[in-house]
Amino acid sequence: MKAVIKLLMLIMLFAIPDVHAHIASNSFLTISVDGSPRLSGQIELAIRDVELAVGLDSNRDGKVTWGEVHAHGRDIVDYVAGHLRIEGSQAAGACRMIVGEPQINERIDGNYIWLPLDVACAHSLHALTIDYRVMEGIDPSHRGLLVANGGATQTGVLIPGAGPTLISLDGPGWTTAVVQYCKVGVWHIWSGIDHLLFLLSLLLPAVLRRTDGRWEAAPLARPAFINILKVVTAFTLAHSVTLSLAAFNVIHLPSRLTESVIAASIIVAALNNVFPQVTEGRWRIAFAFGLLHGFGFASVLADMGLPPGARLVSLVAFNLGVEAGQLAVVLAVMPLAYYVRSTRFYRKGVLNWGSSAIAALAVVWLVQRAGGN
């Protein structure tokens, strides 16, 4: 029993060490090819990642300024050049990549260092080989989100040290698009811990029932399962609707507003566990705020785009990836929650104190997002 409780605590607190939400270690690599022997592109790396890789905070005050970025410009360029290789197919001959001077680009999840890329090959490019080793040996969770614009838009997830990735510029088949966007969807939900904390906050009481002003263990598995199913289904339906609308540019909301409301939704869901106002209808909260979370999911598609020849299938694949990643977390957490639901540790420690910690963390995110920090 103690081992199970410790494992549950670790799962519940897996996101707490990093005060920033929705910004697991990601980079954005964009490449444009027009059929000539030359390609242009850019890579964006989070400042916190570059600090870990290169060391930017010279005065060690916990803040990285533009002056410090500028002072370490050559170190940043050398690091990227040494950990990213872009080459054409064998027919394209030898290629030479030049990394330009770093600049700062502000995103909703923080500031990124933006570097232009220029690759010149001997002959025309019809395929690319990308060897991506950024953050290798530093952060095993790091992923690079790739968008390659050639004959068609190609996307992919680059894993540091996984070996060269071959990208055809003639356009992917629909099966390739399904695999690529499904992987991105899974990674997006796993790296977007704010979405997961919102969902888990609503699911924690699912294995309990409110009686005479107290939380008690649900006596049977069936009611707990139905509660879980209602919350997950409502959240899935809601964010699927707005994700689709945003992906096809039917509705657009400012990302800062969306991300701020997402943080607020976590506060509401978590505090409802501590000061219960909605006990049997939490699926309504899941649906209402799930509509806003859908716009958050759409943000990654805005960065990657949908391939013109497979827009619908790519959107469906991305959403299926999100659902698969979400389901994996639910299946990992909720059976353990049901097993320990009758313990004081769960009712007081996980539900009350855990929810309070989640709410406090979300308050920090709300301040950061609303203030633009």
Describe the structure.
- Helices cover about 50% and strands about 20% of the residues.
- The protein is an alpha+beta fold and about 375 residues long.
- It has 2 domains: about 1-20 and about 190-370; about 25-170, no CATH class.
- Strands 1, 2, 4, 5, 6, 8 and 9 form a 7-stranded mixed β-sheet that branches. It has a 3-stranded antiparallel β-sheet with strand order 3-7-10. A two-stranded antiparallel sheet has the order 11-12.
- A hairpin with a 3-residue loop joins β8 and β9.
- The longest helix is centred in the C-terminal third of the chain and has 29 residues, at about 310-340.
- The two termini are about 40 Å apart.
The N- and C-terminal alpha carbons lie at a distance of: 42 Å
Percentage of β-strand residues: 15-25%
Helix/strand order, N-terminal first:
HEEHHHEEEEEEEEHHEEHHHHH
Which blocks of ≥5 consecutive residues have pLDDT under 50? 1-22
Largest sheet: 7 strands, mixed
- General form: globular
Q: Classify the helix fraction into a percent range.
A: 40-55%
Overall pLDDT score? 82
The number of E-state strands comes to 12
Based on secondary structure, the structural category is alpha+beta
Q: What count of helical segments does DSSP give?
A: 11
Count of domain modules: 2
Spatial extent as radius of gyration: 22 Å
Question: What is the element layout, followed by pairings?
Answer:
Elements: H1 2-12, E1 26-33, E2 38-46, H2 47-53, H3 66-71, H4 73-83, E3 84-88, E4 95-99, E5 103-107, E6 110-121, E7 127-132, E8 143-149, E9 153-158, E10 165-168, H5 174-191, H6 193-203, E11 208-211, E12 214-217, H7 221-247, H8 255-274, H9 282-304, H10 311-339, H11 344-371
Parallel strand pairs: 1-8
Antiparallel strand pairs: 1-2, 2-6, 3-7, 4-6, 5-6, 7-10, 8-9, 11-12
Helix pairs in contact: 1-10, 5-10, 6-8, 6-9, 7-9, 7-10, 8-9, 8-11
